[in-house]
């Protein structure tokens, strides 16, 4: 199996809900579900790999406070090389609503400080592997250093997978140009449907997927996560689609990150695009429909990964 790694945001997630949008100011709302857990794009991906019992590397940082130590403990032994920021650890409060909708309140906290100099020493032994780069718009220091990261990865024969997230200030012309510049270094683009349409400038996925692929290296892969509709992929002339199984949804927060974990694990094990997105959809569907979350390969995934 090829080595797996992720670099990006790890923060504290406080998940509560469901609640119908939106409470009247000054009132109190009782909800049925709450959970305090490690989160962030990188953290969610790492938890899935850990739950599946596969080896991986996660390069990140935390704040120099009690929450920072809590995150280190939760992701030990993989957190041994993390650096510490003097800022407080970032926290995201996620409110779930009936259906798939969520609302987030996030502090950027320690995430802004991590740069390439704090990451490089955390990623030994990844030659020929897969590296997921995520949380780009929350980690300004690291995003500024992407040229050094991409150059290092190319020299190590490491394929970059990218899930940049949503720009804090929206898809301005500057943010579009910046994100499109990252794509020329990306072998696997893993984004959701709204992000795909915004980044491509197209009105539908039929035109968005090839438009994004043209911004990437030859034979690179574009994968779009579409919630209850499953996922869509394009690699060269190969198009793929995986329907999502019907499940009783408990908590969809982090579903896209868990999808990333399943997809990259399948690719690392030698699976092709159609098989990898089936494996990813099934893993994410299992996780969002269990409490506490379970990261398991379902029968449909057996023989795929």
Residue ranges: pLDDT <50 for 5 or more in a row? 301-305
The name of the CATH superfamily reads: Ribokinase
- Tally of separate domains: 1
Based on the coordinates given, report the CATH architecture.
3-Layer(aba) Sandwich
- Which structural category do the helix and sheet elements fall into? alpha/beta
Give a verbal description of the structure.
With about 300 residues, the chain is of the alpha/beta class. It has a single domain, classed as Ribokinase (UDP-N-acetylmuramoyl-L-alanine:D-glutamate ligase). Helices cover about 30% and strands about 20% of the residues. The protein contains ten helices and 14 strands. An eight-stranded mixed β-sheet has the order 4-1-9-10-11-12-13-14, sandwiched between helices. The protein has a four-stranded mixed β-sheet with strand order 3-2-7-8. Strands 5-6 form a two-stranded parallel ribbon. Helix 2 links the parallel strand 5 and strand 6. Helix 9 (about 255-270) packs antiparallel against helix 10. The chain is globular and about 55 Å long. The chain starts with a strand and ends in a 17-residue tail after the last helix. The model is unreliable at about 300-305 (pLDDT under 50).
């Amino acid at each position: 199996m090829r080595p797996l790694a992720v670099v990006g945001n790890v923060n504290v997630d406080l998940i509560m809900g469901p609640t119908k949008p939106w409470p009247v100011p000054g009132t109190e709302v009782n909800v049925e579900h709450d959970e305090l857990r490690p989160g962030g794009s990188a953290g969610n991906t790492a938890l899935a790999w850990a739950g599946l019992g596969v080896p991986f590397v996660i390069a990140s940082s935390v704040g120099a406070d009690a929450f920072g130590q809590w995150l280190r403990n939760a992701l030990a032994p993989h957190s041994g090389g993390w650096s510490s920021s003097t800022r407080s650890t970032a926290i995201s409060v996620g409110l779930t609503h009936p259906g798939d909708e969520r609302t987030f309140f996030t502090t950027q906290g320690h995430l802004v400080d991590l740069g390439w100099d704090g990451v490089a020493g955390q990623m030994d032994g990844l030659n020929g592997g897969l590296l997921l780069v995520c949380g780009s718009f929350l980690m300004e220091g690291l995003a500024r250093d992407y040229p050094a990261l991409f150059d290092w990865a190319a020299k190590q024969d490491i394929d970059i997978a990218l899930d940049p997230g949503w720009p804090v200030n929206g898809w301005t012309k500057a943010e579009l140009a910046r994100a499109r510049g990252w794509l020329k270094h990306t072998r696997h683009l893993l984004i959701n449907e709204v992000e795909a349409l915004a980044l491509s400038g197209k009105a539908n996925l039929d035109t968005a997927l090839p438009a994004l692929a043209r911004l990437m290296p030859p034979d690179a892969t574009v994968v779009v996560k579409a919630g209850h509709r499953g996922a869509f992929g394009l690699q060269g002339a190969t198009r793929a689609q995986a329907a999502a199984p019907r499940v009783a949804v408990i908590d969809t927060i982090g579903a896209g990150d868990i999808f990333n974990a399943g997809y990259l694990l399948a690719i690392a094990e030698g699976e092709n695009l159609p098989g990898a997105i089936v494996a990813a959809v099934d893993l994410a569907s299992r996780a969002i429909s269990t409490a506490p979350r379970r990261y398991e390969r379902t029968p449909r995934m057996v023989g795929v990964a």
